[in-house]
Specification:
Blueprint lengths: L1 H39 L4 E5 L3 H13 L11 E3 L4 H10 L7 H7 L5 E5 L6 H12 L3 E6 L4 H6 L5 E4 L5 H24 L2
Parallel strand pairs: 1-2, 1-3, 3-4, 4-5
Helix pairs in contact: 1-7, 2-7, 4-5
Length: 194
């Protein structure tokens, strides 16, 4: 019984990835071009995620600054969820929904990209970060699921919404990781060729 349940997780994940490929291929390509434009113009990517998606933001930044699958010069990216002193200070002195917005206000520049990840699309800290990014004339690449939630309505023309067509957090997160890998690979191909 348990083995069947485990196997079903694999099947469900694979089925969703096929369905997501139909919906997300073009927007992922658009997001890769947004990231490439920022990087080649001297900008950077600021990545943030709500809850466990903060780990995905860190994974993205590590792959951009370090390397993805092949050697290349580092690309400018920061994860906004890694400096515990900043997070503790903002959380203590202001409000938790300002954790990322304050950092975007301090570190973001026009032409930078905010990569914002929330499975529900309703995380207050992500919504505030998106607002701060727009105030800084930054483009937003948002990874969501669940229909996009409030994030869908917070995006501007020129932003890119990568909404996984599912409502289960685990499945959405599995596709988010794949999308982040696709973004890293696409930027590498655009920079370095096949």
């Amino acid at each position: 019984m348990l083995e069947q349940r485990i196997q079903q997780h694999f099947f469900d994940s694979a089925d969703l990835k096929y369905a997501a490929a139909e919906v997300l291929t073009r927007p992922v390509s658009d997001a890769a071009h947004v990231l490439l434009n920022a990087i080649t113009s001297g900008g950077k990517a600021l990545a943030c995620g709500s809850g466990s998606s903060a780990g995905d933001a860190q994974h993205f930044a590590a792959s951009f600054v370090g390397c993805f699958e092949r050697e290349r010069p580092g690309l400018a990216a920061l994860s906004l969820s890694t400096d515990t002193s900043i997070l503790a200070a903002i959380g203590h002195d202001q409000a938790l929904d300002q954790l990322y917005a304050k950092q975007v206000q301090a570190l973001g520049q026009p032409g930078d990209v905010l990569l914002a990840i929330t499975t529900s699309g309703n995380a207050a800290n992500i919504l505030e970060a998106i607002d701060a990014a727009h105030q800084k004339d930054m483009v937003v690449v948002a990874l969501t699921g669940n229909g996009g939630g409030k994030v869908a309505g917070a995006l501007n023309e020129g932003d890119v919404h990568l909404c996984v067509p599912h409502d289960r957090t685990a499945r959405i997160q599995e596709v988010h990781l794949l999308v982040l890998h696709c973004l890293c690979d696409a930027v590498d191909v655009l920079l370095l060729g096949e």
